Amino acid sequence: MSIKAVIFDLDGTLLDTLGDLTSAVNTALRRHDFPLLSEADVCARVGNGVRKLLERSVPAGTARPVVDACLAEFQAQYEEHLVERTHPYPGIPPVIDAMRSRGVRMAVLSNKYHAATSRLIAHYFPGAMAVTLGERAGVPRKPDPTSTLEILTMLDVKPSEVLYVGDSDVDMHTAKAAGVTAVGALWGFRDRDSLLAAGADHIVERPEDLVQLLDRLQLDAAMHAFEMNGFTWTFCATAEQAADYVASQCRGKTVGMGGSMTLDRLGIYDLLKDSADVHWHWKGDALISSGDVFLTSANAVSAMGETVNIDGLGNRITASVYGFDTCYVVCGINKLTPDLTSAMRRAREIAAPLNAKRLAKRTPCAVDGKCHDCHSPERICRAMTVVMAPPSGMKHYEIVLVGEDLGY
Q1: Are 302 and 189 in the same domain?
Q2: Residue 169 confidence (pLDDT)
Q3: What is the CATH number of the domain that holds 172?
Q4: Partners of 88 in the beta sheet?
Q5: Catalytic residue, candidates 9, 20, 169, 311
Q6: pTM for the model
Q7: CA–CA separation, 226 vs 249, rounded Å?
Q8: Is 9 an annotated catalytic residue?
Q9: Which domain holds residue 196?
């Protein structure tokens, strides 16, 4: 089963909020002449919502009206200063970009009250999250699974298609209660032993490890799906290995190449120019419509076993399905998406704007990087192919996936 969505905890997972939380807690404590707390003290008390944080921060036996007053003072201070010392953990912004590039939808679920959660996400990750939920009146907090299941419904995904990433035992219990895969983050507020004891299915030490985990899980699903659909499948860990492998399959043959930043990055043309009859219009060669081998990339490949390509002229997508005996589709791991819908979305919303900008097209997407479904005369989104199985006229059709980010 492919992974279609990732739900993130907020404090201790996406954002280091301890500085602003501690300042707000101490503002409330100071007004009542209570002992102040260090960041380590506050770290040990977070995880179950702001009321519980204040109850744990005031001296034992404090009357409820005083706790209520501290809570109100905390919230007033925090609302005014919640982005002064808070910051994303190092490595988190690239992870968010990588998830988006891979077509994985993202959500945030926090026990922080909803208004503050929404403000923080809008400030630090604008437009990145499909759903953001914090603590809301009448809805039980984590580890109750109610809000997690609500997010699954909103994203239209199954529990088996979701990773839940958090840094606390509360998050692991939440994931288990909702039936989703629990991923413990070690850069936050809790240690490995406590996360494992709470039921973590996977542990990631650094934010970038999360992308590697996602890719590994998607690869497992994709390999099976492509084989079931009749494709040959090869995985190369590095770009250098992929270049050597593809070149070895083409020597002594007539080879056509589609326009591709991936093939350009791999240096395939230079590897073949002295050992094959290779034709690439990017090098000034004439286009050919038939031959032994056609080399191309794809704008996206689906973990359900399909490839997706968008083209303006149509030469690349035509040659990938007709005219050649063999086709190799070479793609970086960044193009592996959960399903056909996300693959088509990636082609339009990620690959096409980047290619339009590269080609200096006068389209809205070349300016702001967003798909506008435009009617510009220079639009490059003119034809899209979805290859669901090897075309019957071809002898061999192979997907070569590379364990590095390549191309658009």
Answers
A1: no
A2: 93
A3: 3.40.50.1000
A4: 15
A5: 9
A6: 0.86
A7: 20
A8: yes
A9: 5-14+86-216
